[in-house]
Amino acid sequence: MSNTPQKLKHQQVQYLEFLSRDLEKVKTFYTAAFGWVFTDFGPEYTAFEGDFIDGGFTIGEPLKGSILVVLYSQDLEGTRTNVINAGGMISKEIFAFPGGRRFQFLDPDGYELAVWSL
């Protein structure tokens, strides 16, 4: 995990932890969809690093609907394609909202995430 100044913003999300049934499957998905880099810390935990946020996955049963993580994209359609090609399922197609556009998808564990763009 990198603690560069760009990641350490006051009162902003900096680290997220998820439960996963299959760490190898989520690592493959998030690497292909978003280019995240993973570091394993034993057989039951893997940490990820992105440009602006870090987090991790630990073995456990995912709980759908408890939180919606929203990612930002400069190329919404391109990100949507990456999600599909990585094996994600679109749960809400691209739609407009005040301030931008977004879509939502399910990852391999059934977590629903959103991606938005200006």
TrEMBL record:
Gene3D superfamilies, A to Z: 2,3-Dihydroxybiphenyl 1,2-Dioxygenase, domain 1 (3.10.180.10)
InterPro entries according to UniProt: Anthracycline_SecMetBiosynth, Glyas_Bleomycin-R_OHBP_Dase, Glyas_Fos-R_dOase_dom
Database matches in CDD domains: SgaA_N_like (cd07247)
SUPFAM superfamilies assigned: Glyoxalase/Bleomycin resistance protein/Dihydroxybiphenyl dioxygenase (SSF54593)
Domain Glyoxalase/fosfomycin resistance/dioxygenase: residue ranges: 15-114
Pfam family, one: Glyoxalase
PANTHER family (alphabetical): GLYOXALASE FAMILY PROTEIN, GLYOXALASE-RELATED
Protein name: VOC family protein
Organism field: Pedobacter kyonggii
Upper lineage: Bacteria, Pseudomonadati, Bacteroidota, Sphingobacteriia, Sphingobacteriales
